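Worked example 2:
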Amino acid sequence: MPSSSSSSNLLVYDGSDSFRMRLIMSTLSGRPVKLKHFRDKGNEVGVRGYEAGFIRLLDKLSNGTTIEVNETGTTIYYAPGLLIGGAIDHDCDPARGIGYSLEALVCLAPFCKRPVTATLRGVTNENLDPTVDGVRATTLPLLKHFGFGYEGLEIKIIKRGAPPSGGGEIRFSCPTTRIVRPVRLTGQGRVKRVRGVAYTTRVSPTVGNRMVDAAKAVLSRFVRDVFVTTDHAKGVQSGLSSGFGLTLVAETTTGVLYSVAVCSEVWRGVGKTGSSGADRETGSRGADKETGSLVTDAETGSLRTHHGVSAPDCTPDDLGSDCAYQLIDEIYRGGCVDARNQSTALLFMSLTQQNVSTVVTGQLSPYTMRFMRHLKDFFGVKFKIDIIRANDDDGGSVTGDDKVQLSCMGIGFSNLSKTVS
């Protein structure tokens, strides 16, 4: 539990976990936050490179922000300023994907004074952070449910960038909004089609075809409409490292989108920031490779199965079939938002006008549970949680695993900085 000071409205937390969510909520709520004992034990203490880069991104996005970091990097004071927006150019640390910064921009950009046009460079596709393809396919359509950016909301991939060196580049455009519209997303529907993209950088184009064939061999047994394209990056558009990966998106009859992504990995070296299979921010990514048990990423909250394809010597066929099985697992968990977008949906539900919003999700990840606790700390929002049992619904509309129905009253957040045209 955080400690707070009534005089300054300051929230104080211990530890380095939930770093991004605390700064994002601090920026939106206007409440300053102090992080103490920030990774103060071990060989690598203090703020890491990608965290420092994230702080710089928030500084570029706002005006009047106060950021204080002590000499050892183990204490951070952050007092948010006014979200300005506009044109932003930012180089992301290659230890984390562009998705690490892009997720924060998606949450903050709609509430800036001016429309945001952000150019981000770094790793576009990797396994720890959401891929750019996944954010474009599922997160942006989710924003439109809340009344954001029917025009001008887009992500354009200029260059692909694979780990460890990256070299990718994207352009994110987001208009501003004044209010957030309440939502009611309760109808999951049934999967009617699957779309996807297999990318390759600095490898043979046949690698992409092998991933597509392997994924379609699995998915065609369950749904007929499966179409996966290949994106072979050449020359300067292929980044600085070789790699390949696959992103799959399933769409239901009610417009619900489920997305999963699997990318090839390389060993980054033991003891280096971002080492494969190691703690890259808050926790282990371990899993039972034999049984394909559920993996929970402590920072991003993603839920996925692991079938042993993250090793550097994985074949494109294994990667394609693994991605397809992960999509099936995601569909089984169900809900009206996928596991990756649970926290994004809860944030915007909290910021809606003073009306009740309801969203049905699959099982909540540990990250989402921590996110809900932080929403209570910063905004005072509490959720009503109802469990929907799959075998309790006589109509048959609940399929797969048990679902969670989340309801809350919005705080009536209004973007007073939005320029009036």
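The radius of gyration is 21 Å. Residues 146 and 181 are 5 Å apart (CA to CA).
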